[in-house]
Design goal:
There is one protein chain. The chain is mainly beta and about 90 residues long. The protein has no helices and six strands. A six-stranded antiparallel β-barrel has the order 1-2-3-6-5-4.
């Protein structure tokens, strides 16, 4: 909105990059699109009706991403997620 500024901890870089969501305990991968990325997280465009688990592995070789993420927010077609250490990932 005009006159408002966003305050974020880290600068976001706008991208349009193919990626995959690997579901926990499975080899199944769901295609997605990374729309922006920062050192702390990503915004993903996901398939309509896809119910992502709270924690999953995000793979985007072109961006050198192969990391566990935790969902911070969800909307109909998008997910905001923060990078987490593999040690924080629940089994």
């Amino acid at each position: 909105m005009p006159g408002q500024t966003e305050e974020r901890r880290h600068h976001r870089k706008k991208v349009v990059q193919e990626a995959r969501i690997r579901l926990p305990g499975q080899n199944n991968e769901i295609p997605c699109i990374i729309r922006d990325v920062s050192v702390s997280g990503v915004k993903l465009r996901v398939p309509m009706g896809f119910e992502a688990p709270d924690v999953f592995r995000l793979i985007a070789p072109a961006l050198h991403i192969n990391s566990c993420v935790r969902i911070a927010w969800r909307s109909q077609h998008s997910i905001g997620a923060t990078f987490i250490a593999d040690a924080e990932r629940p089994d």
